[in-house]
Design goal:
Elements: E1 7-11, E2 28-29, E3 32-33, H1 34-42, E4 49-52, E5 67-68, H2 78-92, E6 98-103, H3 113-124, E7 128-133, E8 136-145, H4 149-157, H5 164-171, E9 173-178, H6 192-204
Parallel strand pairs: 1-4, 1-6, 4-5, 7-9
Antiparallel strand pairs: 2-3, 6-8, 7-8
Helix pairs in contact: 2-4
Length: about 210
């Protein structure tokens, strides 16, 4: 069972190669950045939000949120970002049992994310949970126990592990499913064409 809401972790440390570099989270979809849209959905479900991003944190100053960089060098991928979030929770919110992670390029995140991830975890008796929609798992959208952070650190730093699903499979991961209509809540923006599509989808929201 849980005690309190999880800490929210927005993973905004990607290199955005297909967008020509820069921060995908700061791309505008209509009148808001993707990050603004993501925060509006995830913040009410959490006890607070931390951003994982590398480089100059000042570019996120306007959001007034803690920004934590990877402790593992050379852009080691999302597992390094998740580890950074777990470490921040342990140091700054010692009563926090769970961290929920979302990518910084998803403008339509579900408003029942935490509830359904926990329900799936409890129903299947697994320590971890991640999102699923359509034919796809979304391993970056997950619920992580802070108690596993040292195991994750060992995997990332000693084993040089980079694939989320390899690590989660060791412990057991439940899948929480969402429909893809009228919009896949885990639609992510990777290309300029995705920006156009997301803008149309946002405009059609009621």
């Amino acid at each position: 069972m849980t005690t309190g809401r999880p800490l929210g972790l927005v993973l905004a440390g990607g290199l955005a190669r297909r967008m020509g570099g820069g921060d995908k989270a700061l791309i505008r979809i209509g009148n808001e950045t993707i990050l603004q849209r993501a925060l509006a959905r995830i913040t009410p479900q959490t006890s607070g939000i931390v951003l994982n991003a590398n480089g100059d944190p000042a570019r996120f100053d306007s959001f007034g949120l803690p920004v934590v960089a990877d402790s593992v060098p050379d852009f080691a991928g999302p597992l390094a970002g998740i580890l950074a979030g777990l470490d921040w929770a342990a140091a700054n919110r010692p009563d926090t049992e769970w961290v929920v992670s979302v990518p910084g390029d998803c403008p339509f995140l579900p408003r029942d994310l935490v509830e359904k991830l926990h329900a799936a975890r409890v129903a299947e008796g697994k320590p971890l949970a991640c999102a699923h929609s359509g034919d796809w798992r979304h391993p970056v959208v997950g619920l992580w126990p802070v108690a596993l952070r040292e195991d994750l650190r060992r995997a990332v730093t000693v084993e040089d592990l980079r694939k989320i699903e390899v690590w989660t499979a060791r412990h057991g991961v439940a899948l929480a499913d969402w429909p893809t209509e009228p919009v896949d809540p885990f639609f992510n923006v990777n290309t300029p064409e995705d920006v156009e599509r997301a803008t149309r989808l946002a405009a059609s929201e009621t």
